[in-house]
Amino acid sequence: MSTGKDGRHKQSRHIRLTSHPEGQGPDGVPAIHWGAASAAERGPVIGTTTNRSQRNVIGAHSGSYGVYRALAVAAGTLLKDHKADLTNTSPTDVIGPNPQWAGAEKIVSIDPWGASVADVFSDYIAQGYDIRPTIAVTKAHINLPEIHHALAFKRLVPDNRILLENGSAVVTKVAIEPVWWLPGVAKRFNVSESDLRRILFEETGGMYPELVTRSDFEVFLPPIGGQTLYIFGNPRDLANPDVTLTARVHDECNGSDVFGSDICTCRPYLTHAIEECVRGAQTGGVGLIAYSRKEGRALGEVTKFLVYNARKRQVGGDSADKYFLRTECVAGVQDMRFQELMPDVLHWLGIRTIHRLVSMSNDKYRAITDSGIEVEERVKIPEELVPEDAQVEIEAKIAAGYYTDGTVPDADALAGTKGRGFDK
Amino acid sequence: MSTGKDGRHKQSRHIRLTSHPEGQGPDGVPAIHWGAASAAERGPVIGTTTNRSQRNVIGAHSGSYGVYRALAVAAGTLLKDHKADLTNTSPTDVIGPNPQWAGAEKIVSIDPWGASVADVFSDYIAQGYDIRPTIAVTKAHINLPEIHHALAFKRLVPDNRILLENGSAVVTKVAIEPVWWLPGVAKRFNVSESDLRRILFEETGGMYPELVTRSDFEVFLPPIGGQTLYIFGNPRDLANPDVTLTARVHDECNGSDVFGSDICTCRPYLTHAIEECVRGAQTGGVGLIAYSRKEGRALGEVTKFLVYNARKRQVGGDSADKYFLRTECVAGVQDMRFQELMPDVLHWLGIRTIHRLVSMSNDKYRAITDSGIEVEERVKIPEELVPEDAQVEIEAKIAAGYYTDGTVPDADALAGTKGRGFDK
């Protein structure tokens, strides 16, 4: 152990390197057979740090919040051996098991059994294994100003089942943490598993050496944000292709989703989708919003704001023909959201057909249909909901392949679509 | 290097373990002297993975989005040696330098020079060092339904400077990634640096062995979410205690902030604070919202939903007297947000007095005032903005020490404050 110049860094205690194979080899640790048809055959995902000899994955629970958990132990507020009391926490609505859970093809980035661990792995838990849910299912009432607007203008009418008199919509909510089966993730990106492991390790500056030293651990709990689902109507109906499904897959945009920034269409499209989901559920269908923590196309918000500045200040000002170029100059790519993993959650829900997809994204459409889910209709954002300064974004995207039933702008039209400068 | 049972995991290429000291020792790598008064003395934070010999920190840029960046390299969409073209990306508004930037006491979790690297470290960049901004400053117009409501009811009036006729507020936005100086973070939590490093490593299941092997690297870029600031009025006025500052420090609650869930007061309090900030800036003051990615008290959303279920299902139903207990049973603690680090951003802005703090949180108040910032007035959420089902939360918090100018509920009142069940 190294010693700092002031002696403070001297390690007085033994550091348990998790990559040491002693005591946590195949013996005694439940194996994970990803894609097995039953929970018993699949085996539990065990990411506990309390008893390291039980671990059968790389990484920690709670996505990036695992760092805060560590901080809580360091600060002395959390006992490191605290075991969650899961009394009364089980899902309000049972999802699956669905046929898509078996086979290791449809789902590689979430644990299909993650909501029901207390039930399906109760034997292990009784034996003392610390197994934690990676999915939680609850119910809520959501109350949005945009839904009040829809009520005021009679676009929606309360039915006291899906939409209450006070404007609240009744939903089932699902929170999902990422659980990556590395062989399957590698296959999605057409890269060898060993290359994926090596690059994940190297390009994060050396996060989790086990990625390259423990090829026997095939599951990784990455420290990234997860997903949230909002379901309108009966969650069981999602798996029934005869029930009309209205769905939007939405990627986080804090600036618009929360603060209403007018440079993009994110919140208006999201609230429009919620309105469509409510209407669909009221007329015998079911609705779904799948919300992913992928801020700024998964480039993060610092990069996003740098790109805004470059767009607004470039010669000629912000214009639709240079929309993607500016992102590429700063970030090296146009997008890091990797829609390849996004359909997993749809398969987890048992979805086979999306009757109304409230999205114009060609990347999302392709990822969904390539994964074997049928899409019937694609629903555009109504033009009156596009903020003036967001015309640059929407025109650039349509020219790049986003769905439209209108005119695709040509080069002249793109160059002529201008955004606001900083001086206005 | 290990070989998998099927031979696929055999590593054909050399794995560059970042903890190898060769070629990146003190020689040639710019040193970081945290808290030095000038950028030149402080030195740049270099988290590049492109040229590992330049690195002087543990971790990677972009917080948790560093994992997506690695995925982009693995998928072959991003060249690993891409260097950001920072043309036109510089801050729209210059923040600091402020006196609080010097001394290593006031700021330990963000890099005060993070917005201006292209300027203050231009020499290094010219020499080929890959130095990236960890802070970005831009301008935006934000348009919220709640502000339209305030306009309709004449609580706000457009002035065409802070608030436009179309209901948009003009703001300066700042995105900030976490940059932790480990000796300073340890001091905040009253723990030794070596214990902090060891526990961060162990309790994340072995993230970044350099935490324990490289005590010469004092800076850590943790894979967690960052912060966003929304400034109403002139950002320079934040450092002037003679200009009335209205401020809210708000921790992410996706379910309420975006979707309007009625079980808590998060979005109503946030939009009330924005209204107060607009009004304050219109009357010669300045406004600030500091938004931190600390979902569900930094426990993450899965834990949050598990707690919701336990609250709604417990014997006697959801009630204010058991509000904190249910979180503790599931998570082991009531809260992991660690307001100890939160005031850093206020000091970065040069704030010495908050004239109107739009928050009732005793934890936030104590952290702010303990850090040496004066708070004059605390602004409650107006009672009419508290959703009915959020009475449990607000009463429990007031009983636990949240600010109120009204009655603190006693045990009977707490037990009598009930939330909705799942059957309603």
| Secondary-structure-derived class of chain A | alpha/beta
- Please list the strands of the largest sheet of chain A in the order they lie side by side: 2-3-6-8-7-9-10
Number of contiguous helices of chain A: 17
Helical content class of chain A: 25-40%
Number of strands of chain A: 10
Quaternary structure state of the chains depicted: homodimer
Structure description:
Two copies of one chain form a homodimer. In chain A, the strands form two sheets. Chain A has a seven-stranded mixed sheet with strand order 2-3-6-8-7-9-10, sandwiched between helices. Chain A has helices spanning 39-42, 66-74, 117-120, 122-126, 145-152, 182-188, 193-202, 210-213, 254-257, 266-282, 295-298, 301-313, 323-331, 344-348, 362-370, 391-399, 411-416, and strands at residues 58-59, 135-142, 169-176, 180-181, 219-221, 227-232, 245-251, 286-292, 353-357, 374-378. In chain A, helix 6 packs across helix 7 (193-202) and helix 12 crosses helix 13 (323-331). Chain A starts with 38 loop residues before the first helix and ends in an 8-residue tail after the last helix. In chain A, helix 15 links the parallel strand 9 (353-357) and strand 10 (374-378). By secondary structure, chain A is of the alpha/beta class. Chain A is built from 17 helices and ten strands. The longest helix of chain A has 17 residues, at 266-282.
